[in-house]
Amino acid sequence: MIHMKIEMILIIFVILFLVFVLGTAVWGYRDAMKHRKHPVFSLFIGLMLFSFPVLGLIIYLSLRKYYKNIDVE
Prior knowledge:
With 73 residues, the chain is mainly α. It has one domain (2-68). It is 86% helix and 0% strand. The chain has helices at 2-35, 39-51, 53-68. Helix 1 runs antiparallel to helix 2 and helix 1 (2-35) runs parallel beside helix 3 (53-68). It is elongated. 14% of the residues are buried.
């Protein structure tokens, strides 16, 4: 009985983590496309957030502040 509860909690945790990873990757890609309008940079951001969700999010948020201050056009 306890084994089934632990297994269920683990399954829920994995599903929530996958939703977080996919959500941050999609959000980062869309946000980069909105602000930079460069597909290669946006794809890189999406892949970085998918591969390294927590570290990638920290890096992207710091890069985002930098790139918001630069007028690309």
